[in-house]
Amino acid sequence: MTHLREMRLICVVLAMCGVGSELACGQVWVDHQKTESLEVFSEFRVDVDGIVKELQAVQREVQTLLELSGDNQNVQLILFKSPASYRAYLSSRIPEGLKRRAIFYKHGGLFQIYAYRHAELTVDLRHEYTHALLHQSLPYVPLWIDEGLAEFMEERPETREKSSRLAGMKWRCRSGWQPKLERLEQIPAASAMTAAHYRDSWAWVHYLMNDSTDTRLMLKDYLQAISAGEAPGAFSEWAVQRETEVVKRIGSYFRRFRISLR
């Protein structure tokens, strides 16, 4: 009986080690739960039901607005109790995540989100889960859309019109300045993105999602073309072929935006 029990324990350890090459043997997970769409490994007790509800809301919104919902493949959330624990774990596995509070990692058919516990963990999970949905739905994702939509979705819908980013962009555009889409399209990799690039990517997604039904449909159709295996080219050129003023109107969109004081 003892031998059988030991064999069962070995099988459990081997199964855990087989959950992606990034989940190391010997790591102590205080909480490990699996739902239909998520598998959570956590160094601290976590409200899995609350996380699932939050991320399902993200998925429903992306599905409703852009008709992208991922392929329902399981996403692993790997949560750490502290920044030190997070960095120690990622240092030899995903070193590009060391300077970030959270990171989405895709390796073949493996989709993982690494993050650590802090006051804005929910914001980080919404952001990174948006990346997972996009990369499950599309063969490739233009960088400015990938980061811009993740920045947009990290805020809940009811808080977006009170966003400090929205107020900041409104004031920037008052002088006639506007974020340049062509410049964003030339960024070679995520590692080259600056805070200004993230801000401007968010601004472009915010504009396209909210200016009109036509601008949202334009973004949706562009992503659907990618989903269908087409190569639509740069969005700045693709959009102008459909509506010549769309790239020019972003400044006026933010200038006329009324900031909620609620």
UniProtKB/TrEMBL annotation:
Superkingdom of source: Bacteria
Protein name per its UniProtKB record: DUF1570 domain-containing protein
